[in-house]
Design a protein that fits this description.
- The protein has one domain.
- By secondary structure, the chain is mainly alpha-helical.
- The radius of gyration is 16 Å and the shape is flat.
């Protein structure tokens, strides 16, 4: 089983991916908890997610796959 243990660097990479995805999860929960999400709420969430993606796009410390994911997501927004 020791061959399946993750290295410290691999745990760090997993944490980067969790940190990248968490705002999307949080915003989804915020929208789903609303009876009728308003346009102002959606606009705010859109802006927050866009800023989050921009921070990854310009980051020098995140994994290259996360930078690419952020760039592609921005293109779709």
């Amino acid at each position: 089983l020791t061959g399946y243990l993750l290295l410290e660097s691999e745990w760090g990479l997993i944490q980067q991916f969790v940190d990248f995805l968490k705002p999307f999860y949080d915003m989804m929960l915020k929208i789903s908890n609303q009876d009728k999400p308003t346009l102002s709420l959606i606009a705010l969430i859109y802006q927050q997610l866009f800023s989050h993606l921009e921070s990854y796009k310009t980051s020098t410390s995140c994994h290259s796959d996360l930078k690419e994911a952020a760039e592609r997501a921005i293109e779709k927004l």
